[in-house]
């Protein structure tokens, strides 16, 4: 049985924190609405407000919750051009490349990869001119970068993500 068929079955990673059904329900609610009040969150997952505060604080202290943020519509925020840029680097240059990519405006995310390319970079820029500048003048200029390939994004959609909420999460005792 796959986790897609039964979202209540979640395989823990090697370093995953222990999450009980109430923790998973809290995470699911916070991902739906990061601005939800603790009182409303506690009501949604059927626990006391003090318990909700304690659990959120514990998950934040453990680094499981790394922050609360806003999701923007890139186009409405003036970032009408999105591209993935695969970058080939000298294998000893990862630290330098990583440090330099963090400094480049419009680089939203990047990851060290296994496979044909070494780094995958997500760039959101106002237009193609800005994208060109990021790729050809900023990324290509980083010591250790050997080449790049750019893919323009025409449309984006969000996937389901991890099934944080298990079936037993709503059966809490209100503690």
Shape: elongated
Can you write the helix and strand succession as a string?
A: HHHEHEEHE
Number of alpha- plus pi-helical segments = 5
Helix content percent band: 25-40%
- How many strands, what sense, and barrel or not for the largest sheet? 4 strands, antiparallel
By secondary-structure content and strand pairing, the structural class works out as alpha+beta
Q: Which consecutive residue ranges, at least 5 long each, have pLDDT under 50?
A: 1-5, 167-175
β-strand number: 4
Radius of gyration in whole Å, from Cα? 20 Å
- Spatial separation of the terminal alpha carbons: 32 Å
Mean pLDDT metric:
87
Instruction: Tell me the fraction of residues in β-strands, as a range.
Output: 15-25%
Biggest sheet: strand arrangement? 2-3-1-4
């Amino acid at each position: 049985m796959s986790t897609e068929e039964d979202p209540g079955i979640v395989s823990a990673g090697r370093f995953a924190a222990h999450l009980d059904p109430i923790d998973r329900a809290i995470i699911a609610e916070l991902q739906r609405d990061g601005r939800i009040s603790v009182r409303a969150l506690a009501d949604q997952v059927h626990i006391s407000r003090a318990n909700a505060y304690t659990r959120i604080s514990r998950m934040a202290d453990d680094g499981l919750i790394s922050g609360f943020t806003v999701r923007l519509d890139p186009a409405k925020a003036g970032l009408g051009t999105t591209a993935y840029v695969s970058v080939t680097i000298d294998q000893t240059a990862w630290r330098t490349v990583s440090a330099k990519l963090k400094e480049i405006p419009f680089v939203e995310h990047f990851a060290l990869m296994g496979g044909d390319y070494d780094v995958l970079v997500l760039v959101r820029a106002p237009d193609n001119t800005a994208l060109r500048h990021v790729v050809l003048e900023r990324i290509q200029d980083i010591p250790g970068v050997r080449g790049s390939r750019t893919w323009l994004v025409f449309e984006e959609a969000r996937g389901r993500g991890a099934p944080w909420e298990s079936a037993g999460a709503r059966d809490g005792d209100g503690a």
